[in-house]
């Protein structure tokens, strides 16, 4: 089975870009990814491309993968659009890994995009609703923030997680994002501001919610033969895991955990031959503050129910034992849905190579990305390690 | 690399089913596929599922893959939605093959669905338009029939392809579909009726166009270990190929050919270690009559420009040298977009096993499926052979 390496990774700035289209954003991310490769990268060498997008709004809905790769100059490159809601490009990454492992590609592209800020708030709420369960959930008036509000209520009630612990997710991630020039909301926030902000869906307030953003990201993968000709700072994908669960929260066994994260993480750890203790840092899917706290538990960073205390202990701060969301996460960096999964890889790639600039945290050798679709109907987890196989 | 076998395949009847939902249709196809397996098939053994759908209309748009697999009882099974327009489940099939080859799955499900008949003609035209190029093509008034009408004009002008040859595609495929109880338009048509029917987009008339349909299909794949425990009538996928091209027709080098079909076929033939002469029968993507004629040429069944004569020679009739669309094809069997690619596999599976009932054509050992997204922005080609590796 071919080993898979990340040889380049980049994202656009995430934010509101009324003068850009989904095509220009994807092209910008792709071209930056090509520039990030150490050696001379031939774009004609890309055998397969996987592009994640939810397809928010009224843009190209059929063939939206080939529609962006052609604009990036890859009109002859085999391309597939992948959609697993907010895990779309987390899933695209996995498919690119499988294409190389299966031997149909020596070099593969995984990426994603979304344009969300050109819609009214009502339209955005509609489109995000479709990432929840449509037939019963959304039709009964459930918003997407409402889905995670139910989870937060359950977690607070079962484990005593506090309002302040939720807000500390925002404070930490904004502190990280303030150092990231690509962040949508690249400013710090105080605990007081986070605790006291406007309610969105009780108990979640504005600072518990990530923004809706425009943006794109792209990751270039290669087998060892190609990677060794391009770089002497290898970053290897050693574990890939994906799992699904009921789409609608009302059909789950638990509201205070995302079982598909546990299953995907177990698969990724098995694949990599490691355990959660080996993960030194992670980019996790903090679409809402409670999501990051549940991720700590479901990824095995702490015991079930202890996510709030784990956060409060400082373990996941940038100088803690296991920094989480050094990029700022979805909360501060932004969440252009289809761009988010491969966007996480950008931070891991730079941190493992010691190239994260002012965000760099010492010498890191093993990181993880965690990408959640909807409220956990699909989850992709990947493990990255520094060095050759 | 693990060899990949088809151990089960089924589809719903294609047609207009106002009392069914996309979930009940998919479940019906999946359960029929399970029943089609020779041995006792454990649905818990499915490691990965890939589901193709364009997502026509206003249904579950995020996580529409997991939304149907959960309804089919596979709520714990890793699931990814794939969208390459009309090649969505042709692409899903390829991904399921890669998952087994890459070793992350021993057993995989590929399938697809679409519900199209609950929309007004105007909405259908809109949604089909999104499979063409949206920003310039559709916005300038191009319909999807219009896209293929341009191709037909070009082919007639460059190669002398005739009105009657186009109509003979319909006559042949309806004759086949009349023997298929799952066909949407399961009736025969005369050459006179086909030639003289109402114009849709000149030169294409009603009988040059496939219907819009509701339906679902599902294919169960397994590696050799599992397959050998389930059946002694093996059908192996020996070749997978996929390619892309510019989404918009106005950006192509040629209008009288689909280059992505040529590229995907070449990749599939290389993968299988065969050539077009080895293909005994095929299910090709005849969304419009001209598409089947171009497919003959692009798949290498005849020389460029000779598709019309090749058809007229009777070569692709059910008792010809290389029967094409024994199922009735998209033209007669119907075209529920996401269900079409894996729907083609159903016919190939039964023909290779000698179980196609009144449609069975002698002893066949090598067949092909050809799935086109849009006007060729993405194409998937697969080669199937009878017997163990």
Keywords:
homodimer; 389 residues; alpha/beta; two-stranded antiparallel ribbon; 13 helices; globular; acyltransferase activity, transferring groups other than amino-acyl groups (chains A, B); Thiolase_N (chains A, B)
- Coarse shape of chain A: globular
Provide the structure class of chain A.
alpha/beta
Strand percentage of chain A lies at: 15-25%
If you consult CATH, what is the topology of chain A?
A: Peroxisomal Thiolase, Chain A, domain 1
Largest interface, with counts of residues having CB < 8 Å to the other chain, equals:
A-B, 60 and 60 residues
Annotated CATH homologous superfamily of chain A = Thiolase/Chalcone synthase
- Helices and strands of chain A, in order, run as EHEHEHEHHHHEEEHEHEHHHHEE
The largest sheet of chain A, given as strand count, sense and whether it forms a barrel, is: 9 strands, mixed
Please, how many domains of chain A? 1
Helix content of chain A: 25-40%
Distance between the termini of chain A: 12 Å
**Mean pLDDT level of chain A:** 95
CATH architecture of chain A: 3-Layer(aba) Sandwich
Q: Please report the number of helical segments of chain A.
A: 13
CATH class of chain A, anyone?
Alpha Beta
Give the strand line-up of the largest sheet of chain A.
3-2-4-7-1-8-11-10-9
Please give the radius of gyration of chain A in angstroms: 19 Å
Domain Thiolase C-terminal (chains A, B): 241-385
Keywords (chains A, B): Isoprene biosynthesis
Region (Disordered) (chains A, B): 318-337
GO molecular function (chains A, B): acyltransferase activity, transferring groups other than amino-acyl groups
